[in-house]
Design brief:
The longest helix is centred in the last third of the chain and has 39 residues, at about 255-290. The protein is an alpha/beta fold. Helix content is about 50%, strand content about 10%. The strands form four sheets. A seven-stranded mixed sheet has the order 2-10-9-8-7-3-4, sandwiched between helices. It has a two-stranded parallel ribbon with strand order 1-12. The chain has a two-stranded antiparallel ribbon with strand order 5-6. The radius of gyration is 21 Å and the shape is globular. Bound molecules: pyridoxal-5'-phosphate. Pyridoxal-5'-phosphate (PLP) binds near residues 114, 189, 215 and 227.
């Protein structure tokens, strides 16, 4: 039994860790030091704010330290590292400010919004009426003037920017005032773009008027899988009071130590990283477009984030493409979303993006044998095994 379990993990590590070009925009790799903290003794321990457990003095210091770095990196008045995932961070924010039958306005999953926020997800859980932002697929963005009208009409209790498909900054500055005038709490789900925000190369939702920025810590932010909430004092104090005992008890202190170190890496290397992620995405998008792939928003320079979107008209058609690429060890999702966050962390730059576009084209357009492409993928991956943008350890 033990051989089987360890064998499966080893096979996965060999394949996804060493031989695959990982282009899933929701994923990244941790530095060895951050990854090492996940298996520290902290993984066995409890602490609680009411000081119920003894033996917690270093754990509590780590949490405090982590919150301070997070506030610094994001320019936030409060930070909380306890949410166990991006979804839980979304849940905590929403639950803190709504009652049944309130209106939640966010981007519909049809337009690339996060399905977990919608009717079958959190909106349903809290009996909220989910109203979509008016959205332009052509520009992959919220239609500002129509959104102002919709907010005035439906008076949402909560307005959430951010999405799962996100190639351009959202109009937070343009819409916050009207949202506030109509009684809304404004949040930004930065699950995808958290590392770009931290690196000051996307938008800055907290400065633009959002009261809270929340989401995952492992997409463009290169931390362990988990969640975070950054907020102004008023909203941060309310969510902090809710987190325990309602949504998180044991916050997994090994994860929080790892996240704290990843935030320190972000403070030092985050700007250079975010800049390169976006440059890589633009280069990859341009090269794919030139080969004839259906890359969205050519008129806007394709993307200003880590994502490149290929529009095949739905997940089922996208799946066909994603499966063909998987045969050549090129890993994307069925969106088809292609992300440059992980390959950038591994040190790839514009030259490698052109190579990746060529490999994708050889598999999808030239229909070359997967074995040929796979060999070149493996060669490219072998050159970029180390995590960059981190402290030497
Ligand atoms: C916009 C958005 N919010 C939240 C989530 C959920 O994040 P997590 O997987 O960390 O729970 C996702 C998932 O990818 C997402 O795309």
């Amino acid at each position: 039994m033990i051989d089987e379990i360890l064998g499966l993990v080893k096979k996965h590590e060999e394949w996804r860790g060493k031989q695959c070009l990982n282009l899933i925009p929701s994923e990244n790799v941790m530095s060895p030091a951050v990854r090492g903290l996940l298996s520290s003794d902290l993984a066995h321990r409890y602490t609680a704010r009411d000081r119920f457990y003894m033996g917690t003095r270093f754990i509590d210091n780590i949490e405090q330290y982590g919150e301070e770095i997070a506030k610094d990196v994001f320019g936030a008045e409060t930070a909380d590292l306890r949410p166990l995932s991006g979804h839980i961070a979304d849940l905590i924010f929403i639950a803190s400010f709504v009652k049944p039958n309130d209106v939640l306005m966010c981007i519909s999953p049809e337009d690339g919004g996060y399905p977990g926020m919608w009717k079958d997800g959190l909106a349903g859980l809290f009996s909220l009426k989910a109203v979509p932002f008016p959205f332009s697929k052509h520009d992959m963005n919220i239609k500002v003037e129509e959104a102002k009208g919709a907010i005035t009409r439906v008076k949402p209790k909560i307005v959430i920017f951010g999405a799962s498909l996100i190639t351009f900054p959202h109009p937070v500055r343009e819409l916050t005032e009207v949202a506030h005038e109509n009684g809304a709490h404004v949040g930004f789900d930065g699950s995808h773009v958290m590392g770009l925000i931290a690196g000051e190369h996307f938008q800055d939702p907290l400065k633009e008027g959002a009261s809270a920025l929340f989401g995952s810590t492992h997409k463009t932010l290169f931390g362990p899988q988990g969640g975070i909430i950054l907020a102004d004092k008023e909203h941060g104090e309310i969510t902090k009071a809710k987190i325990y005992p309602t949504f998180v008890d044991n916050a997994h202190w090994n994860r929080i130590a790892a996240l704290t170190l990843a935030l320190a890496e972000t403070k030092k290397f985050g700007k250079a990283y975010a800049e390169q992620v976006i440059r890589n995405a633009k280069t990859l998008a341009g090269a794919l477009y030139d080969y004839g792939f259906p890359v969205t928003c050519q008129h806007l320079g394709f993307t200003q984030s880590h994502q490149v979107l290929l529009d095949y008209g739905g997940f089922e058609k996208g799946r066909v493409v994603a499966e063909k690429l998987q045969c050549a060890n090129i890993i994307v999702d069925c969106g088809v979303r292609i992300g440059t966050c992980e390959v950038t962390r591994r040190g790839m730059k514009e030259r490698e993006m052109s190579k990746i576009a060529e490999l994708i084209k050889r598999k999808i357009i030239d229909k070359e044998q997967p074995e040929n492409v796979k060999k070149e993928v493996a060669k490219l991956c072998a050159e970029f095994q180390k995590a960059e943008y981190c402290f030497e350890s």
